[in-house]
Amino acid sequence: MLRVKWVRCFRECTHKSAGREGLAPDLWPPHPEAEARVRARLERELAQPERFAWFLAERGGEAVGVVSAGLFPAPPVYQSLLAGLSGDELYAADSEVLAALLDEAETFLRERGAAVFVTTCPARASKRLAHLTARGYQPLTLWMTRPVDPQATRPPAVRPATEADLPALVRLNAAAQEGRRRANPRFWTPHPEAPARFEGWMRHSRTLPDRDVLVHEGPGGVNGFVVPQPTGLPPAHDAAQVGTLDDLAADDWATFGPLLEAAHHTLAARGVRTVQAICPADWPQRRTVLEAAGFRTANVWLIKH
Q1: Strand 116-122 versus strand 274-280 pairing type
Q2: Model pLDDT for residues 30-63, shown as the tens digit of each residue
Q3: Are β-strands 158-160 and 214-218 bridged in parallel, bridged antiparallel, or unpaired?
Q4: In this structure, which topology does domain 2-142 adopt according to CATH?
Q5: Which ranges constitute the DSSP H helices of 18-94?
Q6: How many helical (H) and strand (E) elements, i.e. helices and strands, does the chain have?
Q7: How far is CA 234 from the centre of its chain?
Q8: Rounded CA gap, 249 and 169, in Å?
Q9: In the chain, where does the domain assigned CATH 3.40.630.30 lie?
């Protein structure tokens, strides 16, 4: 096992894998400048060895696997937690190579203080999922996708958020944070300053041109909100075609319907083809509502304590 020191290693492995977009082409469409973008990411991360590493597996002088590993702090609205993420970029010729790559990635992350290990896996990669489960990983987050409905309209009860709506967004998000905390308290325990931090983020989000902050107005006032926003994907893929719904909350599950329809309308107007909704794996009510709306799990984040 070698630390990656030259870009061609990842290029060789990704050309051989060619599998991620095949497992979920709606989530991982190829980017026309994939090779240059991957090169830029690899060079950037190799310049930060205290935080990132790439490991290459070779057999008989041939590259047979590669994995990325990196340290990431918790979002500001959650308690401080240093997570070690591996597998955002991963190719392994067989299970033996996969085990060796993950051993190296976990050792690197552990030695640098990672409190938990998180890895990502396409939902249809059954052999890889089975291997990760055997290593002690359990589903953490489901990345659920469906095509954007180009015929969707914005329901009358849904409108853009105003400054006056911020307290309602904070209240709704606190309930959503509690749902995440119940799903995995180790990963999603809210920070004591979460309300103020979230309010500041929503105030800033209203000024960003690449997203929309939408609220649902019920008889008693604002009772739901959604933020259709851009998606972060590995650099080999075209994120412009995918939108994300992470900040999505309501007082009742029925309100998800008009919020999701409004999100489709907004994303379609931006030329987005696929929408993904983020759902904690151990939050069955949220998953059921999203499945009823046509979402299906395309990618899974798994956690190992």
Answers
A1: unpaired
A2: 888 888 888 888 889 989 999 999 998 888 888 8
A3: antiparallel
A4: Aminopeptidase (3.40.630)
A5: 20-23, 34-46
A6: 9, 12
A7: 11
A8: 9
A9: 2-142, 147-297
